[in-house]
Amino acid sequence: MAAAGIPVIDAPLVSVGGGIGSFVLADVLRVSGMGASSMKVLGQADRPWDTYNYLASVSQIPEAERLRSDSMAGPDNLWGFPSLAVREAFGAKSLSGFIAPLFQVLTEPIFTDFYTPKAGQIYEGMQREADRIGWWPMVDRGQVRTIRRREGGGYYTILTPPAGTSPTKRIAYRSQHVHAAVGYPGVKFLPDLQAYREKHQDFSRVVNAYEPHEHVYQELRRKPGTIIVRGSGIVGARILQRLIDDHDHHGAQTTIIHLFRNYVDGPQGDSIFFRRPGGDGFNYQAFNFPKAACGGQIKTKMEGMNGEERKAIIRVMGGTNTPKRKLWQEQLSRGRTEGFYKTHIGQVEEVYPSGSNTVVTRIRTAEGMLEVDANFIVDATGLEADISEHRVLKDLLDHAGAGRNAVGRLDTENSFEVRGTRSGEGRLYASGSITLGGHYPCVDSFLGLQYAALQIADDLARQGFVKKLGPARSISQWWKWALNKKVAA
Ligand SMILES: Cc1cc2nc3c(=O)[nH]c(=O)nc-3n(C[C@H](O)[C@H](O)[C@H](O)COP(=O)(O)OP(=O)(O)OC[C@H]3O[C@@H](n4cnc5c(N)ncnc54)[C@H](O)[C@@H]3O)c2cc1C
After folding, report:
1. What's the topology of domain 8-186+385-482?
2. pTM exceeds cut of 0.90
3. 135: CA distance to ligand 1 center in Å?
4. Which are the contacts of 470, defined by CB distance < 8 A and separation ≥ 6?
């Protein structure tokens, strides 16, 4: 590398990604006593919440909207105390703003929907915590190309810095340990919609919920039109809310056609002890996974399962589901009565352009073929492409000894170490959605990222990298957190 003119930077631990997963690990390790110079974070975004904020905003969760995690899951507070509901109450500017979150969290989910924080509250908290732990100098910007094992143990991580910021095109980071938290490998499209977009080069009428598509709402506000929504998960529900909000507050005359491939019309599950409610096409579940899977008896059970058993239970508990929120129930029921929200069930056979600047969807239904002409189609079915579509992950699979678990993601130990990638004393860890299928199902959530970070920190502590976070330090660090005292460099 020296001969090739590639500078080599030494850092005991490198975290690849720089998003919420990297941030949460840095937070846990800094709170545990790791010096800021012991970890380098490599990522493309300016702020750890930027990618999340982007995906949330385009999929209709702007800062003022509420997320889908509970009151204790704040990426800026690993203790979960005080809860986000209490923090929202004490930050409120009115009496009703003070009472509402407390009332909701005390009566959830019986009398009210589950309390969930606003997106903006999460970003503000992370900004404060990033300043407190000295996050900003830990980050080097750029795109990571590869993570490779070194002959002498540990790893090399190769980064391409942004153009004009470095005299060389590549920088190598030599570290004992590496952590990969690269988020979603890529956006996934429904094959028929992808085929349409490619064949007709139409990226404006057929859009994915995870790409910018504000023009859709703007045009539908300007003139009456029809939109097909495909997907019945949380993102589909958000899109429906946005369309009905525009109908209610901006006079949009939009006919919404909601297309279901599998229509859920009642509770799902074989046992009365293990089932979830469903109806009107939706599987209802407050969070991605039941709470017991993130920190209760299902979590404990899963730790003892093999890969295939885990895959089966993840399929039953996960899959497409959405919370049964009172607002959404009211909006959709009004839409059905007033006729601006209609549902169809079937298999899409073809999508093609009509002569009049609209798109036709041919659907095979139980009653025969149906053709629906729409101004727009929104694909709200999913985000997660195969892990091999991510260059760094593909390289790990091809060259670094990483393997797949039964779900097809990275195979990890309970400590979140990626199996097969150990290099001398060095360990490669991963967290986030790329590890789904291991012993812990809630990996793709704030809580799951914190859980993974704690497991990784414990494993690093066993190797003497950092002190184990014990009760005395945890309490004293919580006080520092509460008083917003900076963590020592
Ligand atoms: C729309 C949406 C809403 C969600 N809502 C919630 C919620 O309400 N509650 C909850 O608990 N969870 C939620 N999640 C799930 C999860 O908590 C977030 O996706 C979270 O951001 C995952 O953190 P991460 O670090 O894995 O990925 P990210 O935060 O996306 O960070 C990954 C980072 O890696 C970078 N990266 C990727 N490849 C490279 C490379 N080669 N080189 C350099 N950098 C790279 C990316 O640019 C990105 O910045 C939501 C997810 C989405 C998409």
Report:
1. FAD/NAD(P)-binding domain (3.50.50)
2. yes
3. 17
4. none
